[in-house]
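Quick start: read one record
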Amino acid sequence: MSERQHNRDAAHADLMGVEFDSFDAQREEITLRFTAPDSFITPRGTVQGGLVAGFLDEVMGWAHVWATDHVEAPLNLDITMTLIRPVMAGPLVGKGRVIKRGRRVIYLEGELFDDAGNLLARSTSTAIPTPRPGSEA
């Protein structure tokens, strides 16, 4: 899937400045690049926490989509997030991976880094595997 095709899949991806970087099939890990726009910044000067969760949700979800050859998409039951450092406007790197995938439940993990490689936030999700909208499944 190209960067352009990924961005067309959902309008929210344009808002977050999502760019596909890579997928490691053996690790079931995806790397996405984001650009946090100035409009995401709070009066404290950092990206609003719910929007940070959105970046993490995106990388976790796409890890499962790619791991299932774009046939399934996760439906979140829960997401847990830990903010480690302030997330500023500008370039970000997200890594999402499938921890365990079953027929009924999927366990996902995500991390968000700044351009220098500093860990900014981590997340986990428990989700249900569902047919991906628009897939042949």
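The chain has one domain: 3-131.
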